[in-house]
Specification:
This protein has 190 residues and is of the alpha+beta class. It is built from two helices and eight strands. The chain is globular.
Length: 190
Amino acid sequence: MRRTLGIVITLLVIAGMWQLGNGVWIHAKARLAQHLLHRAWARTLAGERDVKPWPWADTWPVARLTVPAHDVDVIVLAGASGRTLAFGPGHAAGTAVPGAAGTAVVTGHRDTHFSFLERVRAGETVLVQVPGRAPAAFRVSEVAVVDARTAAVLNDDGVSTLVLVTCYPFDAVTAGGPLRYVVTAERTDG
């Protein structure tokens, strides 16, 4: 009996260490990726196109998003696939370029790059820089929880809108689910 109990305890400790290591790896990978992405962003601003942050990358930096009130400075990647979002927020294909007329949608994981969205409030400023354009300032106008199965966030009224999206609730044990946390911001300059 003692031997069986010892084996069970050992297996539980190993499983716990595996889970802890997995959680640490997710955050470490996200931070390291942003360091590499900032380097690729500098090359992008210097005129290179579609700069891959590492040789096997299937995405590249398309924007820089800063939120001064929350000390956030992240590089946004092209595309919003799960593989892309593991390294940084992604600009959804088919949506406007951030700062241009129309709605730009940027998505990110609730437990890494977009964890700060939980603290964002109406009136706060979001800055977005894209290559070849002056930085654009946005003011948060709305924060909402929506059902992804029925919600639509696109508008075509010619106004420059930035929509930041992540999964909800922030403290969910498992990823996914139908709810999304949506932060909408309207351009305040030019």
